[in-house]
């Protein structure tokens, strides 16, 4: 039995855990990293990377099928095994950055196996016992498969198994119309599958209704069968096909079933009571600095911290932990976390939605909307669908909603502006390259001042006086 003493023991080699490990090791700390599954975690192997690689291939097929701008449309030949080979190759290209070899090269002790707390100061993994000054739980999350009647009798795909497919589903039924459900619905439809999405509540329910409507209109225009407010009351295996009976009496028969109904923190097996670590359905109970509320040796980052399930949030959490655990500096988890749904059109959000801002600021809120139809770059590409909506209070943005091509990339400006409390006047005064969609940000910000400049009688009188008397 090997016994190790270390400064930081990190459980989980996903985005958050790897960032803590790399930073801590390079700053001189002794680091032990434990991973029972694949290095790189869900994002690299089953989430962000494979899904965006699949979406990119589906987009190529859609462009060929759509034509336009004088280019004749054509029916693309989709080689689905080659598409999935592209997905696998993308993972393989990025994997060395997250590999055990790289982290051992940084001086990290990497142990492969499932960690289990044996006391508030110690974890066990295989034959090893690790005692650490600080622990970081970075175990991510796992997909939730809903407890529907008959679901145990049918094969169910999740994001952890979807990208192992090598044959294109003839008819893919997706349970859940959140971001993952909508992204995969559009991608598989573009690749040639029939797609039916069943959502018990409202699709993309967290998002701005105007933005959601634009996304859903795009999905339905491409042939996605979207069943909103529908519940599955029974599932049945028909011998190679899956039958779903909905509460309105309708029946769906599909070749494949994907559960995209949410995720839960992956905390099973850690034996948290032995370490006096409190948790609930959201994750480890932590304070604003990500420290366990019941064991000060322990931090949680990423999905395990229960504050949002985003790779970029896990990376930000890692910085919070490094500042505290290594440098003894105060730090707090970020409150403003941007998010993007990678459909076509993309939907990007940072800060408050319009409804959230109205609930807090009421009549003090100004909503500024700039349509892509007024943007020259969008017109040159014959892609005028989309808009920028900015929620502003006292001359500063408090939220931004973007819908359209590249919305996620354009969100960066608004994320910076809200996080750093930059005034709309600064954005309106930017000199931006022409023609770009980024100009919609400048025009939206400028609209805040239009009434003050162009509908101001006093200002007009002053201009006339200047023109009359100033040589």
UniProtKB/TrEMBL annotation:
InterPro entries: FAD/NAD-bd_sf (IPR036188), FAD/NAD-binding_dom (IPR023753), FAD/NAD-linked_Rdtase_dimer_sf (IPR016156), Pyr_nuc-diS_OxRdtase (IPR001100), Pyr_nucl-diS_OxRdtase_dimer (IPR004099), Pyr_OxRdtase_I_AS (IPR012999). The keyword NAD applies. FAD binds at residues 52, 139-141, 303. Disulfide bonds join 43-48. GO terms for molecular function: flavin adenine dinucleotide binding; NAD(P)H dehydrogenase (quinone) activity; oxidoreductase activity, acting on a sulfur group of donors, NAD(P) as acceptor. Keywords: Disulfide bond, FAD, Flavoprotein, NAD, NADP, Nucleotide-binding, Oxidoreductase, Redox-active center. Residues 7-317 form the FAD/NAD(P)-binding domain. Residues 337-444 form the Pyridine nucleotide-disulphide oxidoreductase dimerisation domain. Its cofactor is FAD. Pfam families: Pyr_redox_2 (PF07992), Pyr_redox_dim (PF02852). NAD(+) binds at residues 176-183, 199, 262. Binds 1 FAD per subunit. PANTHER family: MERCURIC REDUCTASE. Belongs to the class-I pyridine nucleotide-disulfide oxidoreductase family. This is FAD-dependent oxidoreductase.
